[in-house]
Amino acid sequence: MIIFRIDLSIKHGLGHYNRIKSLIKYLNIKKYQIIVDKLPRASFFKNDKDNFLALYEQGHYFKNEKEDSKLFLKIIKSKYKNFVVIKDSYRLGYYWEKHIYKHCKKVIVIDDFPKSKHFVDCYINYSPFFLENKNQALKELKKNNKKNCVFLLGPTYSLFNSSYNKKEKMISDFIFYNGGSGNILIFEKIIKKLSKNKKNLFKIILIVGPFAQNYKIICQKFKKYKNIKILHQPQNILKALIGTKIFISSAGVSIFESSFLKVPTLLFKMNDNQNLVDKNYEQLGHYFNLEKKDLKFSDKIVNLINLMLKNRNQILKMMSKSSIVIKKIKKNYREHLSFIHG
Amino acid sequence: MDKFTIIPIEDTLINKYLIFKNLFINRKYSSKKNIIKKIDHYQWWLQKQKKRKSFFILKQKKKIFISTSDHFKFKNYRFIYSGLLSCLSETNLFDLLKAIKIQNNYLDKQKNKYCFISIDKNNRVLMHHWKYFGYSPLENKNIFYKDVKNILNISNNYDIFYKKV
């Protein structure tokens, strides 16, 4: 049995869930359980309803690693005997892993921070950071981990959704996305300015994630704009991404999806974990990376988006040097994680 | 002996180019002293950079300067406005003069064009060397003076020099 322990909430977003879903798909895992603090309510998760298990009862919440690991083991051990744990959580670290380790067949971690300490059999971090700094970072990772840990590092182990139905392709000029829980209204001024362009009536898609709490307000705000379509908690954003000309997004997991589809992208670093340097984004083909604070220059951003559209071929040429080959990624995972290959 | 070479500037260096532009050594003698924001740089790149003919000057395969040349038409004349950007936070006179020489080799290959450079009046080093590269001062009475100053948006803190190739 494969047990996933992940962060999934309005606060933590959708990223961890999306990553493990990709891994499940890559490895064709049939039987699995996803342990979360509380069961997600959004209809987005309905297909996975039976695979979720809440760790905390009503009125109880995450306190610390120690309590969490105890509760986790109590629940899992009562249900399964021989299990592999895959953890994707920023809150649970070395202590949690060490505590559960002896009860598991294997412990695997998916991480974003190369300097954090772990106690696992397999460490996954697919940040492009490792393209340049692999040897130095590996030394540090080895120091911070248990012996014989297998390290799967760099974009050749990227976890993102790569499949979509070509028949469902949605055509647009621009897509705005602020992750699974982000507020799309952070782009409101820019969207409204772009949609009022008199020369071109741009087709704009707004993707609203399953944890976004203001869907109704968003609908209300853009009700009058006939050229704006709101896509609420889509199971797959690729069908929209593949048909757009410019993607405007937070620099989350979708950086891999737009890199894979080679869609010219304007990124905004919205959170502390979106902390890569330009060079790392460039390795994925993303050359236009701004900070959240730049959003206050809405006129300049509108101008930049228009310029990106006008010079799309130039940007596509820039992107052509990056290559995420999904077949290779799947093969890599199947080779290294053969013990959980479904 | 050090080997100097040139390579074209590709679009993929858009972010690196900004790092060079923002080096203090470049801002010191530039008309824009402030740090250039990414949002402004990206717009400039997609509008202006592609019209520019630029190349890196390398010393022993290390980027030391960027030679920039803006080509434009004015009435029946063809103008080139050239500049140099350092890729290093410190440079030396020998490398600078070598870079100017390499830039001049490029300019000398252009035909029937007027080449302009502007030099900060406080830049004592360059103010002494323009004559060695065939430039003459663009004086007030010159027919191009007003227009060139306006088109290139050159402030009074700068002297303009030109040559015909």
Any idea how many domains of chain A? 2
Question: What is the overall number of helices of chain A?
Answer: 12
Please list the strands of the largest sheet of chain B in the order they lie side by side.
1-2-3-4-5-7-6
- Quaternary structure type: heterodimer
Instruction: State the helicity of chain B in percent bands.
Output: 25-40%
Q: Termini distance of chain A?
A: 10 Å
CATH topology of the largest domain in chain A: Rossmann fold
DSSP, total strands of chain A = 13
Give me the CATH architecture of the largest domain in chain A, please: 3-Layer(aba) Sandwich
Low-confidence segments of chain B, ≥5 residues, pLDDT <50?
none
Please state the overall shape of chain B, judged from the principal axes of the Cα atoms: globular
Main sheet of chain A, how many strands, which sense, barrel? 7 strands, parallel
The most extensive interface, with participating residues per chain, is:
A-B, 23 and 13 residues
Describe the strand arrangement of the main beta sheet of chain A, using strand numbers.
Answer: 3-2-1-4-5-6-7
Look at the structure and give the mean pLDDT of chain A: 92
Q: Care to count the β-strands of chain B?
A: 7
Strand-residue fraction of chain A?
Answer: 15-25%
Number of domains of chain B: 1
**Helicity of chain A, as a percent range:** 25-40%
What's the N-to-C terminus distance of chain B? 30 Å
Radius of gyration of CA atoms of chain B, rounded to a whole number: 15 Å
Explain what you see.
- The complex is a heterodimer of chains A (342) and B (165).
- Chain A is globular.
- In chain A, helix 5 (188-195) packs across helix 10.
- Chain A starts with a strand and ends in a 6-residue tail after the last helix.
- Chain A has two domains: 2-158 and 327-340, Rossmann fold (3-Layer(aba) Sandwich); 166-319, Rossmann fold (3-Layer(aba) Sandwich), CATH 3.40.50.
- Chain A is an alpha/beta fold.
- In chain A, 34% of the residues lie in helices and 18% in strands.
- Chain A has a seven-stranded parallel beta sheet with strand order 3-2-1-4-5-6-7, sandwiched between helices. Chain A has a six-stranded parallel beta sheet with strand order 10-9-8-11-12-13, sandwiched between helices.
- In chain A, helix 6 (215-221) links the parallel strand 9 (204-208) and strand 10.
- Chain B is globular and about 40 Å long.
- Chain B has a seven-stranded mixed beta sheet.
- Chain B has 165 residues and is α+β, with helices and mostly antiparallel strands.
- Chain B is 30% helix and 32% strand.
- Chains A and B meet through helix 9, strand 13, helix 10 and helix 11 of A and helix 3 of B.
